[in-house]
Amino acid sequence: MTFFEYVDRIDKWIVLLVNHDASRQTFDNVMLILREPLTWIPLYVLMAWYFRRKAGGRFWVYILLSLVTLALTDSISTLLKDVFGRLRPCYDGEIGPWIRQLTGCGGLYSFPSSHAANHFGLATCWYVSVASLTGKKWKFLWIWAALVCYAQIYVGKHFPSDILAGALLGVLIATLVLGTRSFFEFQAGRVRQVSLH
Predict the structure, then answer these.
(1) Residue 11 domain-assigned?
(2) Cβ distance 144 to 43 under 8 Å?
C-alpha cells in the first residue's frame, strides 16, 4: 500500500466515523448552522467594529486585507479542486452510499476545502492583525475555523485531508497577504525618510 493509498484509507474511515457512526440527530442542525456563512455575520461585524475602534481611520486597511485574503483563498482553492480532481465523499464509489447527506453534495471535487481555506485564511489575517494592533492573542479564532471545518466533515462534504490542505492553504495565503502589506509599509516608510532629508 502506497502512502497516498494509506491516507485515502484513513480519510474514508474518519469520514464514515464522523458522518455516520458517531453522528447524533441532535447535532445535525447545529452542524448545518455552523457551516452556514450567514451564521457568522455577528463575528464579521465584531471584527469590523474592533478594527475601527483600534485602528481608527486605518481600519479600512484591515478590511481590505480581509477581503483580499478571502478572495484569494476562495479562488485559488476552487482552481485547485479542478487540478486535483478528488471526488467528494458523497460521490465516492466506495463510501458514497454510506454517507448521510445532510445538505446537497455540491460540486464534484473536494480537494482542497474552500471552507477551510477561507476560514483559516481569515482566522490568520485577524489573529495577526489583532496581535499587531493590541498585543492580544484571540485564540478563539482558531476554534471558530476548526468548528466550521469539522462541520464540513460531519455533513459529508469533505475528507480530513481536504480540510488540512485547505487550512494550510488559507494560512499560507493570509501570511503572504500580510507580508505584502508589511513590504509596502516598509517601502512607504523609506520614501518618507528620503523625502525628509
Answers:
(1) no
(2) yes
| Total count of domains within the chain | 1
Helix (H) or strand (E) holding 165: helix 160-196
Cα–Cα distance for residue pair 61/150, rounded to 1 Å: 31
What is the Cα–Cα distance from 175 to 7, expressed in whole angstroms? 27
Q: Which three cell numbers stand for residue 189?
A: 516608510
Q: Is residue 54 part of a domain?
A: yes
**Which residue range forms the structural domain that includes residue 176?**
42-191
Q: What is the pLDDT of residues 11-20, one digit of tens each?
A: 999 999 999 8
Residue type, 28: D
Q: Is residue 48 part of a domain?
A: yes
pLDDT digits (tens, 9 = 90+) for 77-100: 999 999 999 999 999 999 999 999
Helices (H), 56-159: 59-84, 114-134, 140-154
Specify if 23 maps to a domain: no
Q: How far is CA 21 from CA 3, 15, 26, 156, in A?
A: 25, 9, 14, 12
The pTM score is 0.89
CA angle 157, 160, 162 (to 5 degrees): 70
When pLDDT is cut at 50, 70 and 90, the band that residue 21 belongs to is: confident
Residue with the three cell numbers 478571502: 70
